[in-house]
Design goal:
2 copies of one chain form a homodimer.
Chain A (H helix, E strand, L loop, with lengths): L3 E5 L4 H13 L2 E7 L3 H11 L3 E4 L2 H10 L6 E4 H9 L5 E4 L7 H9 L3 E4 L2 H18 L3 E3 L2 H10 L6 E8 L9 H4 L4 H4 L9 H9 L1 H14 L6 E5 L5 E7 L4 E5 L5 H9 L15 E8 L7 H12 L3 H17 L6 H13 L8 H18 L1
Parallel strand pairs in A: 1-2, 1-5, 2-3, 3-4, 5-6, 6-7, 8-9
Antiparallel strand pairs in A: 8-10, 10-11
Helix pairs in contact in A: 1-12, 2-3, 4-5, 5-6, 6-11, 6-14, 10-14, 11-13, 13-15, 14-15, 14-16, 15-16
Chain lengths: 378, 378
């Protein structure tokens, strides 16, 4: 059980639930950050009394500093602020920021040997090889917070050497079974309405396009040290099973729970222990019709694209992820159609120059170029 | 991985599969026994070349001795023969005999510190407290072979302290949903036709009445050191999930596999390792409609009776199990109706005198009295 944490992205969905879990578990919150939601961050800061807070947005940070002037809480800003937030006296860092801005602070926390409670999948998607190499070198633990990776992590505890195949499950999103023609006029409001999980806007859109499952596919490769052929995506619309592993003898272990992110967050904080939790229990007296099927890659081309980028490696996943972030941003602000999310990302992957064994600088450049491509061409 | 084993009941369904697993894994079979199927035992003996064989039936043993006169294989008989079979130079004993005759040989193997690959559930049902106490005292490992208990055992590995509840699944058998009126005229041929598993006749009938789930309920209490309130029986007609555990935070871990007893047998032999296996894999591209529901104790009163006996403790489970063995024997030979299995067992439980903290002698007497009661009154 961790005694003290820093929460990057405390005003988002995962961040808020991380604070709730910390409160429930009696864990001290030493630092917290936001992008620009300083109203909520101030409220959180007054409640949790961290020693440090930061806003990524510089002007928001200036306002926040004024708001908290009556406290002894230090205020930072920008990427430097996020890096400072992981450098306070804490045992673990919850990386709950959205997008590739999580990369540098995560690397900073790793060099400080802190446990990474990883809720920012873009970090591993863009720079998985680099991050895992650093974590190994510094002996920093990476414990996944994503429900799927937490499930796999739990199923594999003590039996990593027995793994034959990861069965990565996903609900298929709100438009499961719909053709590209049928999704052409999907609005942001429709796309963020996930059938089983309540999540932030970006990840909800990614769930609808199944790009989220693609990002998780790449994340799982890095986290569990496997190849693309070792992972099978399984569509499971009921979201009761959060993922499974097939072991060498054909045995399958599955992890299940109510769809509440509080649970994997708590587990990442208490691991290797497990604590009682306030969440609802699954009701086995009436659990009907759990189904499992193969994904239809024609209807969800983003997943196929992500699997291709996973096989290609190098800067391909970073380009794909950054282009997707930009495209989803445009979609959410009604500047891009739903199907054009895939089109623009696929185009960026085809056009941005490829580096096979990238440095951190190469990854950051690929990220920048991919965003630029989508924003200027769409 | 075990290097050498003795198989009690090698001519039964589990016994034959244990020999196949031993052959596949390259494990030496040092001894094997049968009740009276000496034709098959001779064939097995000539193939596996154990140093010792035994037939429980005395006259069958005499014939077997003549058949194997040209070999150097020693031949024993009766309960003494079974006890001798566990005393050969072997690391593990697969107890695949049916009924309470497995009790003494199992206790003998425990005193010799051998791993018990437990496929004889009556041993724990009748004398669970005694057997577990002895196993602890001698440091003998008990690894379950029953698919449900193997599933629970696998889900709990490394996390015994995290257990909140065992979710013991069962298919509900071939007459699931049928009322007592509708099962009145069930024939032995109908009762042994299990929808998912191929098994011996006695256990198939027990599956139909759900007495098998009741016996497993009591077995699980002893194996995992829990109370009746810690176990929930869940009807799962598809037999894909073999059982589950709910952990302290509400997380559920499930073990799944194709319904082939070869798998849990192999695991009991290889544990704590896991080996590749020749069994089919579950196909997640088309797994439809897994359902879970509460058992209907009015339609399957044997399960309710077993749960009552589990709560009562003492000699109650031994009386129930022995009466059930006798009743199922009568049913299989067309001397008792299907519904009368429950009636006779319930009556025996009510009539045979109860001992709260029984010795081995008390248990053997309870067993004898219960059989006698059913055979004389029905």
């Amino acid at each position: 059980m961790m005694n003290s944490i820093s929460v990057l992205g405390s005003t988002g969905s995962i961040g808020r639930q991380s604070l709730a879990a910390a409160a429930h578990l009696g864990i001290r919150v030493e630092a917290m950050t936001t992008n620009h939601n300083i109203t909520l961050l101030e409220e959180q800061a007054r409640r949790f009394r961290p020693s440090f807070v930061a806003a990524y947005d510089e002007s928001a940070a200036r306002l926040l500093k004024i708001s908290l002037a009556d406290t002894d809480i230090a205020v930072g800003s920008g990427e430097a602020g996020l890096c400072e937030a992981v450098s306070v006296a804490c045992e673990a860092v919850v990386t709950a920021v959205s997008g590739s801005i999580g990369l540098r602070p995560t690397l900073e926390a790793i060099t400080q040997k802190k446990r990474i409670c990883l809720a920012n999948k873009e970090t591993l998607v863009c720079a998985g090889s680099l991050v895992l190499r650093e974590a190994k070198a510094y002996g920093a633990e990476i414990v996944p917070v994503d429900s799927e990776h937490s499930a796999i992590f739990q199923c594999l505890e003590g039996r990593r050497s027995e793994l034959a195949r990861i069965l990565l499950t996903g609900s298929g999103g709100p438009f499961r079974g719909k053709t590209r023609d049928e999704t052409a006029n999907v609005t942001p409001e429709e796309a963020v309405r996930h059938p089983n999980w309540r999540m932030g806007a970006k990840i909800s859109v990614d769930s609808a396009t199944m790009m989220n499952k693609g990002l998780e596919f790449i994340e799982a490769m890095h986290l569990f040290g496997v190849t693309p052929d070792d992972i099978q995506v399984v569509v499971h619309p009921q979201s009761v099973v959060h993922s499974m592993v097939e072991l060498t003898d054909g045995t399958v272990l599955a992890q299940m729970a109510v769809p509440d992110m509080g649970l994997p967050i708590q587990y990442a904080l208490t691991w290797p222990d497990r604590s009682p939790s306030p969440y609802e229990r699954l009701d086995w007296t009436r659990m009907k019709d759990l189904t499992f099927e193969a994904p239809d890659l024609e209807k969800t081309p983003c997943l196929g694209l992500a699997m291709d980028c996973a096989r290609k490696g190098g800067t391909a996943p970073a380009v794909m992820s950054a282009a997707n972030e930009a495209a989803v941003g445009l979609f959410l602000t009604h500047q891009l159609g739903y199907n054009a999310i895939y089109d623009s990302v696929a185009e960026a992957v085809g056009r941005i120059s490829f580096v096979e064994d990238p440095s951190l600088a190469d990854i950051i450049e690929a990220d920048r170029a991919a965003r630029g491509y989508v924003l200027t061409h769409y």
